[in-house]
């Protein structure tokens, strides 16, 4: 994403700088803190209630829209529903409002305040409002007006942002890294270890799996959709070819001119839009085709309407001088060859009840009127018909469970120093990427392995790496010199502190949420 932004023109960056500043006040700008159920937007619904205080729906909508705008500015395009779902924008907006509300409330009990001078200094320090390196009041007012903000609103938003920032920092400042934590990190970064392990893969134990009928039936009941036969339909249909209508029609000069103007983008040449005289034959042919298709559709619709009561496709076909065609049973994912590519027809076919007429349906091939001659519902076949397929699936699923169980049993034997044939990794150091010799990429196992000690040398649970389950025991640990730790302890603590501070802040906010009574309007974050 950063590479994407860097490639944008400078003008684009300048354009969004102020937007990002304003939008950074998610959940703070315009929020009426502590107004209770009578707060702004109270009568218009609420996004959440926190300890009885409503967070107005309007505030959620503003926060949500600001977040969407940020992403749209960054991506340079509209946020699609799939992108929005993946980013979790609705939940982000609501969580931001709730967290900021709780933090602001806590700030009061902590005695944290923001002075007018602090607000003024923070605004003057923003590069957006500076000219030649100094705060420019005229530029400040101009930018606020262009974004439809008053100084009072903007300064209140800045005040709330500073309040939240100071409160968060106060919590972070309480975090410390102990000598023991620093030593553990030092050992993690500098010690070398060697593991001995056993592993099991499903394909190695699948021959031991002998599913019973009860297990087969249980799997079938829990996974019916895997075995259901597809819903099928058989159609009778007629197809009107607009070309037959075109042979009876003409288009006037006025119709040609109108079609040319309405579809001007079709006539694009190397040097721009081609004049009508150069493309008149194409325009005339397309206009005639469109006119014929429209008339064919209207004729089909009118004829179908007249025979609604009789529900007789043969009568409709006879009136239109067409032949009724029929298909065998087919499912939506495997249509008959005659309907290959006719998505709209197939969709309509599976909306009809048996014996029901439908249409007209227009496709590039022509105008269809269809009738569902037969419908066959989706069903789950009896066990006797699908036993072989079912056994394959059940054995595969049970083999995964068995491989994990064997690894768990092996872990207990390793802990009890039981006799097991093991393999070894050779010595290796800690890697953030999680690559363990012989075993492969296993970040979780890497983390667990470097926490093993002589007193507790075995992982508590098996780890899945690829398609295998592993149980591991510490074979040896080559410790880094303690003297080197004493030399680098303070530097290491400073490196560890930011993460410790973020963890402390996250735990504190989580604690606030756990103690609070929060009622969320679920309709706001429900996926549609």
TrEMBL record:
<feature type="domain" description="PpiC">
    <location>
        <begin position="251"/>
        <end position="387"/>
    </location>
</feature>
<keyword id="KW-0143">Chaperone</keyword>
<dbReference type="Pfam" id="PF13145">
    <property type="entry name" value="Rotamase_2"/>
</dbReference>
<keyword id="KW-0472">Membrane</keyword>
<dbReference type="GO" id="GO:0016853">
    <property type="term" value="F:isomerase activity"/>
</dbReference>
<protein>
    <recommendedName>
        <fullName>Periplasmic chaperone PpiD</fullName>
    </recommendedName>
</protein>
<dbReference type="InterPro" id="IPR052029">
    <property type="entry name" value="PpiD_chaperone"/>
</dbReference>
<keyword id="KW-0812">Transmembrane</keyword>
<dbReference type="InterPro" id="IPR027304">
    <property type="entry name" value="Trigger_fact/SurA_dom_sf"/>
</dbReference>
<dbReference type="Pfam" id="PF13624">
    <property type="entry name" value="SurA_N_3"/>
</dbReference>
<comment type="similarity">
    <text>Belongs to the PpiD chaperone family.</text>
</comment>
<dbReference type="InterPro" id="IPR000297">
    <property type="entry name" value="PPIase_PpiC"/>
</dbReference>
<keyword id="KW-1003">Cell membrane</keyword>
<keyword id="KW-0413">Isomerase</keyword>
<dbReference type="InterPro" id="IPR046357">
    <property type="entry name" value="PPIase_dom_sf"/>
</dbReference>
<keyword id="KW-1133">Transmembrane helix</keyword>
<feature type="transmembrane region" description="Helical">
    <location>
        <begin position="12"/>
        <end position="33"/>
    </location>
</feature>
<keyword id="KW-0997">Cell inner membrane</keyword>
